[in-house]
């Protein structure tokens, strides 16, 4: 019997449409699925603990070998709502920025925007645990995922990173893609891709299953997140990677 393909995904609300179709799908006979936060599964992919992962694209330069294995991603063609710089003061008054430890891509994107687009001289501070209570005065914070949707109710100034990337480059942004660290069979990829597509076509079912009072998930899944990995998104991804390389 062939070894099952080890697959890891992010446990945020934004991945629910991609994972929804896996439940009853035949591809589940071919894989083992685990979930965690982005930086953790990125490390698992780098170290070969998993074969495929929905990872922040900033991990790509760290992989000896990589293959994009799906036509779907976590992307944005405008404001993404859940990857933002939060502050009590306008951009030009920010002195320090706390960085979210959960995602390499969002931190890398923030650094590109700080340096190339906003041209700020703010001090960047790494974090390892909760830090949202430090977002006050001239101290800002990059917050991602579900916690960012919560922080939208707290901070008066919200700078959406995908929106500002679009202003800077006129290209969409890819936060995470399904990436493997080895070649996989075309049959597996075809079934995997099909499982991904099911939830994208049934957003009302996913919204109904995930009651959430802090943000309208229909808006989030249909207007903020853009799931198809289009040619323009691939172009945006290559532009972003050019800054990392």
Automatic annotation (TrEMBL):
InterPro entries: Menaquinone_biosynth, MqnA. Coiled coil: none annotated. Keywords: Lyase, Menaquinone biosynthesis. It is an enzyme of class 4 (lyase). The keyword Lyase applies. It catalyses: chorismate = 3-[(1-carboxyvinyl)-oxy]benzoate + H2O. Gene3D superfamilies: Periplasmic binding protein-like II. Pathway: Quinol/quinone metabolism; menaquinone biosynthesis. Its EC number is 4.2.1.151. It holds the Pfam family VitK2_biosynth. It comes from the Bacteria. The keyword tRNA-binding does not apply. Belongs to the MqnA/MqnD family. MqnA subfamily. Catalyzes the dehydration of chorismate into 3-[(1-carboxyvinyl)oxy]benzoate, a step in the biosynthesis of menaquinone (MK, vitamin K2). PANTHER family: CHORISMATE DEHYDRATASE. This is Chorismate dehydratase. It comes from Chitinophaga rhizophila. The gene is mqnA.
